[in-house]
Amino acid sequence: MLHDVIIHKTVPEIKTIALIAHDNRKRDLLSWVMQHREVLKAHKLVGTGTTGSLISEKCKLPVKRFLSGPLGGDQQIGAEVCTGQIDLIIFFWDPLTSQPHDPDVKALLRLSVLYNVPTACNVSTADFMISSKFFHEEFTKAIIDFANRKPPVYVD
């Protein structure tokens, strides 16, 4: 059994939500954002380059934009995850198309698990997330403090 050190982080009522989509999934994300525009406008939205621009232009929502994913945008969002600046991720990635920045995509998804950031990778999961009571109120989440994790204790 591992003796984990747990950190508790309060996620505020107004959340910072990362919106990301690969080229073949941008239409799906735009449609999803438009369907939930009234709810999303109460939150802080961030996104990678092209996706952020499209959401801002087509959905008329303010989006803080990072670089395009292949140019480091996924890594920039990953850094925000590590510093506790991202509360939720909606990342419609394309499982059927090879991406030039695939290691960055995998790193971002790994960080979302490591820091216990709710992450939706498809419309169904995003719908579940936005309909959760936790989407609409402050909540506390637990994060394992891997930097101070103690080694396992083995029992004979």
Task: Kindly describe this structure.
With 156 residues, the chain is of the alpha/beta class. The mean pLDDT is 92. The protein has helices spanning 26-35, 37-40, 49-59, 73-82, 102-114, 123-131; strands spanning 6-11, 16-21, 44-47, 63-65, 88-92, 119-120, 139-144. Helix content is 37%, strand content 21%.
Q: What percent of residues are in strands?
A: 15-25%
CATH class: Alpha Beta
Structural class: alpha/beta
Give the CATH topology: Rossmann fold
- Within CATH, the superfamily carries the name Methylglyoxal synthase-like domain
Helix content: 25-40%
> What would you report as the Rg, rounded to the nearest angstrom?
17 Å
Domain count: 1
* Topology pattern, helix = H, strand = E: EEHHEHEHEHEHE
Strand elements, count: 7
The stretches of 5 or more residues where confidence is low (pLDDT under 50) are: none
**Termini separation:** 12 Å
Quick summary:
This protein has 156 residues and is of the alpha/beta class. It is built from six helices and seven strands. The protein has a five-stranded parallel beta sheet, sandwiched between helices.
Which characteristics define this entry?
single chain; 156 residues; alpha/beta; Rossmann fold; 5-stranded parallel sheet; two-stranded antiparallel sheet; 7 strands
